[in-house]
Specification:
With 295 residues, the protein is α/β, with parallel strands linked by helices. 39% of the residues lie in helices and 20% in strands.
């Protein structure tokens, strides 16, 4: 990984108009990301995690400040920033192969021959271990397999930055673990720059080089950034027993629960906040996490 400022968010703020007046969702968001770095963004619902991701994607335009990628300002969506959402968003009438092929043709239609396109589609389906099901339609494959195809489609565009918004949030625990392992394998192989929004503390610690922890809104901003100094490749079973892993995990939980209790001071949840906050699943409480983990 290089140390240059490959991607930079500078003084980013965004205000949304609402019937109750302007709503300041984000303010003073500053972040420098190196090429090949894996960043997780975590925080409570309504803290603007997905909004940050959407600004980098070019889906939202910052009210003030901006995003610079390799020296160029981001002003609109582009294939250099591929997004993987929680919903796979595959076209149901196309096969897995055809869903990936469609993206490849849009980006490389004039640069690659028909044979090169076919090879590239198969290569990217191979990266996510989906070559065996490439001719199946979405209704014929599982949720985890659909997400694999969605990731293959994003990777096939050869993006400079892979943006992931709760990509494994709708999957069962075992499938989610397999997908996390696949993502680590792919990122290790391709050295992608990745920004992932998550609510899962263990996922953030396992996958990330740094975890960006957001303060709650309105006017949300970055509260703390935690560097995860764990060797790669990472094995979840081995790491779970190490004091280092548990130290990082505890630090994130401490931040999140401190912010949760701090927000207990008269929390006025205005209609404006409700209308502009992006829907995100709630964080699992510490007690619920223990029940899940230890039964």
């Amino acid at each position: 990984m290089t140390t240059d400022n490959y991607l930079e968010l500078s003084q980013v703020a965004i205000t949304f108009p609402t019937p109750k007046g302007p709503f300041l969702a984000l303010q003073d968001v500053n972040l420098k990301i190196a090429k090949g770095e894996f960043i997780s963004v975590i925080g409570h619902s309504g803290c603007g995690k997905s909004t940050v991701l959407n600004i980098v994607a070019g889906l939202h335009q910052a009210t003030t400040g901006g995003v610079i990628l390799e020296g160029k300002e981001v002003t609109e969506p582009g294939p250099d920033r591929a997004v993987v959402f929680q919903n796979h968003s595959l076209l149901p009438w196309l096969t897995a192969y055809e869903n990936v092929e469609l993206a490849v043709k849009r980006v490389f239609g004039k640069k690659k021959s028909k044979q090169e396109i076919a090879q590239w589609v198969e290569h990217n389906l191979g990266l996510v271990h989906m070559e065996h099901a490439m001719h199946k339609r979405p209704h014929e494959i599982s949720g985890g397999m659909k997400q694999r195809v969605g990731i293959a489609r994003a990777l096939a565009m050869e993006p400079k930055v892979l943006l992931m918004d709760e990509p494994f949030g709708a999957l069962d625990a075992l499938t989610r673990a397999h997908m996390q392992d696949s993502l680590m394998e792919i990122q290790n192989r391709l050295n992608n720059t990745v920004i992932m929004v998550t609510h899962d503390v263990d996922e953030a610690v396992l996958l990330s080089d740094r975890i960006v922890m957001m303060n709650q809104g309105p006017g949300a901003t970055i509260g703390e950034i935690l560097k995860i100094d764990l060797p790669r490749p990472r094995d979840r079973v081995t790491l779970a027993e190490t004091p280092e892993y548990n130290h990082y995990r505890a630090a994130v939980l401490q931040f999140l629960y401190a912010k949760k209790h701090a927000s207990a001071k008269p929390a006025v949840k205005s209609e404006a906040v409700e209308e502009t906050a992006e829907p995100e699943p709630g964080l699992v409480s510490l007690e619920e996490h223990k029940k899940k983990k230890f039964g």
